[in-house]
Design a protein that fits this description.
With 79 residues, the chain is of the alpha+beta class. 39% of the residues lie in helices and 18% in strands. Strands 1-2-3 form a three-stranded antiparallel beta sheet, covered by helices on one side.
Length: 79
């Protein structure tokens, strides 16, 4: 597991539309206000896998992610 943070300044082709969890290539769980949707159709799972990969590529990790968190804490006067 790794934590990635998408900077507000990052150029991205898409914005996250809903919260989803991708479980390998067998299941996607989508959280909606009224329900949780379980997706098992391979072609639909592939759409979520592509969306995840696009979001992952815009995220920063490690020291760069930590710097963003520290900057956010400092801007709130919590540091």
């Amino acid at each position: 597991m790794s934590l990635g943070i998408i900077p507000t300044t990052a150029h991205r082709e898409q914005w996250p539309r809903e919260t989803f969890h991708l479980y390998d290539n067998s299941l996607v769980s989508v959280e909606l206000v009224s329900a949780r949707v379980r997706i098992t159709q391979p072609s639909e799972i592939a759409l979520y896998a592509r969306a995840f990969e696009e979001l992952r590529q815009t995220a920063v990790h490690g020291a760069a992610a930590r710097a963003l968190v520290v900057k956010a804490i400092d801007s709130l006067g919590l540091g």
